[in-house]
Amino acid sequence: MAANPRLRAIPDSEASEKQLAMLEPLRSPDGDVLNIFRTMVNHPDLARRWMVFANHVLAKSTLPPRVRELLILRIGWRCGSEYEWGQHVLIGRGVGITDEEISLLMSEAIDDAWAPEERVVLQAADELHERQEIGDATWQALVSHYSVEQCMDVVFAAGQYTLVCMALKTFGVQRDDGVPGFDL
């Protein structure tokens, strides 16, 4: 990641009316807005359209939340995005992923510590990251555990979060306060 932001996270005091309107529904109860969103509003039209897809992947996916978060964490780690990794460490903990499991996601290989239906999603994430395709054996294992819609959500979640990692790292988006990095 760039040591300093290449694109600024727009503070409320400098945001246009259009940018403020986009940021308003993204505020936490204490009024904060994540740096990713403050950065994305540098291009409001792109941000508005991207957030529709991002919302599907994060909030409307057919994948169980734990499986979705395992997949996103693996992609974040494989892409080397501390911002994405850290945000989803917090979300993952909220859906029952343990710190031990989070550490296992940073291993080079996926081992038998995972349930078969989780291991195949992690294998799919690795294959999509390495080859931009899920191989036949992994696909057959994936469809034995998940519906067609869920298999599609695996591919699109991996792609969405790869794209997000690329943007975060390229733009130099800084981690928000209290968000861990790879050093946990």
Could you outline the blueprint of secondary structure elements for this entry?
Layout: H1 17-23, H2 35-40, H3 44-60, H4 65-79, H5 82-94, H6 99-104, H7 116-131, H8 136-145, H9 148-171
Please characterize this protein's 3D structure:
The protein has 184 residues and is mainly α. It has 2 domains: 12-59, no CATH class; 63-171, AhpD-like (Up-down Bundle). It has helices spanning 17-23, 35-40, 44-60, 65-79, 82-94, 99-104, 116-131, 136-145, 148-171. α4 runs antiparallel to α5 and α7 (116-131) packs across α9. The protein is globular.
Characteristic key phrases:
single chain; 184 residues; mainly alpha; AhpD-like; 2 domains; 9 helices; 62% helix; globular
CATH topology-level fold name of the largest domain: AhpD-like
Largest sheet: none
The CATH class designation of the largest domain is: Mainly Alpha
What is the residue-averaged pLDDT?
Answer: 95
Q: Which regions have little confidence, pLDDT < 50, spanning 5+ residues?
A: none
Q: Do you know the CATH architecture of the largest domain?
A: Up-down Bundle
Count of DSSP helices? 9
Number of domains: 2
Number of strands: 0
What would CATH call the homologous superfamily of the largest domain? AhpD-like
Class based on secondary structure composition and strand pairing: mainly alpha
Query: Compute the gyration radius: what is it?
Result: 17 Å
Strand content: under 5%
What is the percent of helical residues?
A: 55-70%
* H/E element sequence: HHHHHHHHH
The gross shape turns out to be globular
N-to-C span: 17 Å
